[in-house]
Amino acid sequence: MDEDSVRRRKESQNGCTGYSVDSNTKDKQPVKATVLQKDVGLLSGICLIVGTMIGSGIFISPKAVLLYSGAVGPCLLIWTACGVLATLGALCYAELGTMITKSGGEYPYLMEAFGSLVAYLYSWTTVMVLKPSSFAIITLSFAEYASTPFYPGCTPPLVVTKSLSAAAIFLIVSVNCLSVRLANYVQNFFTAAKLFIIIVIVGAGIVLLAQGNTETLSNAFDGTTSSVGAIGLAFYNGLWAYDGWNQLNFITEELRDPFRNLPLAILIGIPLVSVCYVLVNVAYFTVMTTSELLLSPAVAVTFGDRVLYPLSWIVPLFVVFSTFGSANGSCFTAGRLAYVSGREGHMVKILSYISLKRYTPLPALIFNGVLAILYIIPADINTLINYFSFAQWAFYGLTALALIVMRYTRKELHRPVKVPIVIAGLMVLVSCYLVLAPIIDKPELEYLYCTIFIFSGLLLYYPFVHLKVNWARKLMRPITMHLQLLMEVVPPETAE
User: Fold this and answer.
1) Where is it localised (predicted)?
2) Looking at residue 39, what DSSP letter applies?
3) Which string of b and e fits 119-151 if b means at least 16 CB within 10 Å?
4) Is it the case that residue 442 has pLDDT exceeding 80?
5) ∠ CA 169-170-172 to the nearest 5 degrees?
6) Strand, helix or coil at 355?
7) Within a domain: residue 13?
8) Is the pLDDT of residue 10 over 60?
9) Is residue 232 part of a domain?
């Protein structure tokens, strides 16, 4: 091995990447700093929000809101109100994201407001369970609808859907490891695809309305439920369809001009999703009665069969596109949380390292992908994520509370966006309801098991994060070095 190769190998090991040496001229050439690059513009930011929020739910089974509201009118009003609430919540995140311009979603805000312990419990729960299991569920949905045409009249074998899901995870992780820009292009393309099919469905609905298909809509409030609990559950399910409005806060450090583009992407993206959800539901009601919609296994497919034949095949095709795009967005943001928590010492250091050639958080992305593949092995992963979902809203509520706390404890911080504090208070109350509602409605031991898992992270926090025991650091040092050389990754340069 020549001297230049030895020196470059040592520099990679030590994280020194300030210069490159041309093997012919021996001249030092400056290279880019080893940090994640600001490759995400306004359009890509909007596509990340829209593409992650709109998954398969609005196409396959937007029935829960109708079931609990009891009639078309309240159903449409609840979809609209949920969009307003999601926008208000995202505005709280706009203030936090422009005040603390760090990636990682809720993590840096919880760290600043409540300290290391709360931020660690968030990263422990989200990195180990919420993000990879969500990634796995989306790819399983993709695999199911991609394989169904090859098994007409029956359900695809489980081994086929799981193998296809694992292949999709491998492909998406590979794309995200190769290039941030390539991942953005993929996200933009699939977001455009899902908006196209929404335009087709809404356009067909407008034509049917013009032709007088208003039977279901004419008596919109007949059968409205008077149960406060049922209306509450309708809101609960509607807000879950809007989940994903915080995705841009996971990549704040990679966003060009975050003080402008973060709030602007939120103000464009989330109202756009809200309009799409309401208009798509209106289109469904022009073709189906409430009973038919509740009985349909895949509402958009039923709509396509009745309205778009013989081109009805485009609906399941674009559902596949939609789920793949959502999976890509989920992978993109999940890697950033693992990267930031590794950088802060709450996860192993190797997760915070960056590819020397690609400038992507390669170890964090691979770690998330491996966990996702492990999560597709169990028979029913949906049960797992349903029980853990209450934890997600607990962290949303804590983040809104963090905004209120920092109004008093961190008054000196510059706030380019400042929302009325009553909005943050409203989000705290909504989050408390969404945490308690499923537990009160149907208390089960699984919620206790999930809570025990969340706090079991303290068993690792005290020795490895708080005390920083020497034997653990000595054990991890050679492992980190070999993984670093294997993946050609280096520590990130210290952020200014």
Assistant:
1) Apical cell membrane
2) -
3) bbbbbbbbbbbbbbbbbbbbbbbbbbbbbbeee
4) no
5) 65
6) strand
7) no
8) no
9) yes
